[in-house]
């Protein structure tokens, strides 16, 4: 069984007009599926009612993981596996030699946080290798802004979009395959 759903696209030429359009659509209770912009628009996330990202919490835990790995690596290497007397300083305990390990600990903390955050970002946004781009209009990578709405009352949406200064409105019918 397949159903047809309507997708309405409103194309703007200015980020202020886009922000106004988003606010007016949200005030009328119209759900916005996605907004495509060529650069970050300040206040757009709040206007759309998006939740605050938890990526900063992930960054903290990834950094803590890097610090833990660095601490275990330096302890294992310098105290357990191959203890050496370097510069007349015996390595009986890891804590006595921590100042020598701080650069390693810092670097691995940053390394783990940066790399794992990049992987997490790509995973959460479904940017897998070899995946086709999901952008419906390539002009949004240059200088245009696009609002995407699904299954809405076309006439009501059209009036709001025109009132907010939209340059172009496109309606696309998409077949949605459902298997029971």
From TrEMBL:
Q: Which domain of life is it from?
A: Bacteria
**Per the UniProt entry, what species is this protein from, by scientific name?**
Apibacter adventoris
Chain segments annotated as transmembrane: 58-78, 98-124
Which Pfam families does this UniProt record tie to the protein?
A: ActD
- The protein here is known as DUF3341 domain-containing protein
Key words, A-Z: Membrane, Transmembrane, Transmembrane helix
**InterPro entries assigned to the protein according to its UniProt record, in alphabetical order:** ActD
């Amino acid at each position: 069984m397949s159903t047809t759903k309507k997708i309405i696209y409103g194309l703007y030429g200015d980020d202020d007009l886009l922000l106004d359009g988003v606010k007016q659509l949200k005030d009328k209770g119209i759900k916005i599926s996605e907004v495509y912009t060529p650069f970050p628009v300040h206040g757009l996330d709040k206007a759309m009612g998006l939740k605050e990202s938890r990526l900063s919490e992930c960054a903290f835990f990834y950094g803590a993981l890097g610090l833990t790995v660095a601490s275990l690596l330096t302890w294992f290497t310098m105290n357990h596996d191959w203890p050496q007397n370097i510069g007349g300083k015996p390595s009986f305990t890891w804590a006595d030699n921590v100042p020598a390990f701080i650069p390693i600990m810092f670097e691995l903390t940053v390394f783990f946080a940066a790399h794992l955050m990049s992987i997490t970002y790509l995973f959460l946004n479904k940017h897998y290798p070899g995946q086709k781009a999901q952008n419906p209009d390539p002009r949004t990578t240059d200088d245009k802004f696009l609002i995407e709405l699904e299954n809405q009352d076309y006439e009501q949406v059209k009036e709001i979009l025109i009132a907010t200064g939209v340059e172009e409105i496109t309606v696309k019918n998409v077949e949605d395959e459902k298997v029971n």
